Amino acid sequence: MDFLNLHTHKTSVKSDEINIQSLSLTTDVFLAMPKKKPISIGLHPWYATIENLALQMKYLAVLAKQDNVKMIGECGLDKLKGENIPNQLIILTKQIELAEALSKPLILHCVKSFDELISLKEKLKVKVPMIIHGFNKNETLGRQLLNKGFFLSFGTSILKENSGSAKLIKEIDFFFLETDDEPNSIEEIYKAVAKIKNITVVELKQIIFANWKKLILLP
């Protein structure tokens, strides 16, 4: 059974890995889209602008229909970079509406904006899965997000002993693992999580793939 890497910006793929490569749609990148490899595509809050939103959404709506596009994103909210939060909420809302129309999960970037993200989810009554990528906050926030119906994907923060991620993942079974743009391998992250949960890597792979299938992400 392969290692499933839910979110990565790397293009290289080992023979024993399934990597969901994340692409950010910008005004100058429309057609460089893999046709077979599983990908996610969206308007990253660092780069998306209200000025270009109509054009970007036009292209995103077409490209997101490809069968190999498994998720919309990464998209989301970031108070440290990008448009102001009111504009980011408009941009994210458009992508949520697209994800709902296509019945595809959202892969979310969120920095210092979790209250706003939770409020938006409740306001729009979002039905598609919403996955927070690279969760690295405290255990309390993690539980709050889970209770609000979000899913979590963990990256290299899980390698830090006694981190909020490590404490949380020890007690839950519905989660995903990723490398994002970090140099660590997905195998290293799987081994660390297997050790935390006191199970084998094979058993962990089975859990991850079962979660993946529940979200109807595999053909």
Automatic annotation (TrEMBL):
Q: What is this protein called?
A: Hydrolase TatD
Question: Which amino acid positions bind a divalent metal cation 1, per UniProt?
Answer: E74, D180
The answer on whether this UniProt entry bears the keyword Cytoplasm reads no
Q: Any idea which GO molecular function terms this record carries?
A: hydrolase activity, acting on ester bonds; metal ion binding
Q: Which domain of life does the protein's organism represent?
A: Bacteria
Q: Which UniProt keywords apply?
A: Hydrolase, Metal-binding
InterPro entries registered for this protein in UniProt: Metal_Hydrolase, TatD-like
Protein source organism = Pedobacter cryotolerans
Keyword Mitochondrion assigned to the entry: answer is no
| Chain positions recorded as a divalent metal cation 2 binding sites | H109, H133
